[in-house]
Structures are given as C-alpha cells and as structure tokens.
Amino acid sequence: MFKVFVSKKMAKRLAIGLASAGTVTSLGVALALNMDLLASDAGAHLPNYPWFHEGMFNTFDHASVRRGYEVYKQVCSACHSMKYTYYRHLVGVSHTEEEAKTEAADIMVTDGPNEEGNMFQRPGKLSDHFPSPYPNDEAAKAANNGALPPDLSLIAFARKNGTNYLYSLLTGYHEPPAGVEPKEGLHYNPYFAGGWIAMAKALYDDVIEYSDGTAASASQLAKDVSEFLRWSAEKSHDEKKKLLLKVCLVFPPILGLFYIYKRRVFTVLKSRKIVYNPTKGPGKSGH
Asked: What is the pTM of this model?
C-alpha cells in the first residue's frame, strides 16, 4: 500500500482552490439562469446608426441640430425641460446671434425684484436657459400620472449609447407582442428598460413643418432631435475636434525638429570613444 502525505500548506491551498472553483461555478450558473431576465431589464439590443459626428474629425450636422431644436421647441418642450442649455449656446451653431435673440424674446421670464421689491415678467435674453414647462417637479408629476419627465439637457450622456438609444426609443413604439397584457397608462417600447414607458409616442409624420422645407417624416424628426440632444450634452464637441486636428497638424513637424536637433547635439557625444589607460594616472607624465 502507498501512503500519500499532504502537508498542511498543500491542504490549505487545495481547499482554497476547491472553494474558488465552486464559487465561480455557482456564479456562472446563476448568471446563465438569469440571462433572460437581465436582457429584458436592460431593453432590446440597440442598433448602431452611422452618425456623422462620430468620425474622428467630423463635427455635428449643424443643419440637423437646427431642425432638432425645432422638434424640441414644438414637440418635446411641452413636457421636458432643458435647464442646462441657454439661448446663447445656439449662436454660431444652429442660429445667428439675431436669430437666437429672436428665439429668446419669444418667451417670458420671471425676473426681479424691481425697485419696488416686486417680481416682474420680461422677454427672454440670450443669457436665459430654455423655459421649463412646469413650475416644479410636483406639478410635472401631477400632469403626467406621477411620472417625472427627465430634463433633456444631458440625456444623451445619461443613457448608455445615448444617441442610438434616443433614436431607437423615439421610433420603437408598437403594439405589445402576443400574450403580453397592456398596462394602463403605459406604452410598449422594447428599447425602454422593462418594456413599458409612461411617455406616449410623440413623433408622427408631418407633426411639424421644418423651416428649411425638409420632409418631416417620423424617422427624420427622431434623427434630428437625437442629434440636437447629443449636441446639448457636449456643446464643446466641435471645438475638441478642431483642437485635435490642430495638434495632429502641428505635432509631427515639431517632433521632426526635435529629432534633427537631438541628432546634431548628441551625435558627437554618442560617437565619442573614451579609453581608460591604467598606465597613466595622477602624477605620471605619460611619456
């Protein structure tokens, strides 16, 4: 008979290895069993659309941003605020300064107090943000069956794969699949987490008329407002791309000049040969 001797250290390592393997196996089985649930909670898989601004040196489609502003103003602003986007941000992007001032002047803003200590109404200015449709969150909930419409200023960054998510969500409304019971006050949209959303479908063909004459199909409306909301989430996007382009144009020549300078300065040092002669030393003549 053979006897196997196992040290305490080896037994401890073996126990730790078996425990780790059991833990990993359990987690793997649990994840596999709940994969369908996780997929349904996250919503349907988002397709990737060819957005022009995703190119390395591409800017936003400014004509689309302007149309998207029209969609937001005439459709989305009835429920959603954009308190981090100001009329001055439109200048040089989708509107001229005069056009932006005209857009701002169309709203009335509560300001004050005046010299008498009273609040008053005045036309909007470039320094004002887009107006909120409700005075506070409680009023917004009361008007939407308890659901609070999110602020859209940064919504493209608040959702994973934001631009594709917004477009898919806006165009993804349809009847629930067979066997799924409708829910009162909710609308079926597979791209929303859980499949049911309080917001009704808002974009239909020709629901608005574009100022530039573009055909206002539902998909075009969704594309333009998604582009506008993506711009609103990162207003410095175009400036960053311009800076990147400048760096790419300026850096290679500078790198070349440094290389030439390095070759001229250090060539002598790198090619110099230093020989140590042990017969010469302090106090020796060297003859």
From this structure: 0.75
E strand map for 99-239: 108-111, 120-123, 187-188, 196-197
Count Cβ atoms below 10 Å from residue 25 Cβ, excluding itself: 10
Q: Mind giving me the DSSP string for 164-196?
A: HHHHHHHH---PPPTTPPP-TT-EE-TTSTTSE
Q: Any idea what the CATH number is for the domain that residue 186 is in?
A: 1.10.760.10
Total domains in the fold of the chain: 1
Mean pLDDT of 203-216: 96
Residue 183 lies in a domain: yes
Distance CA 130, CA 114 (A): 23
Domain range for 201 is 52-85+129-238
Give the pair of three-digit tokens for residue 135.
């005075």
Using 50, 70 and 90 to split pLDDT, how confident is the model at 191? Answer: very high
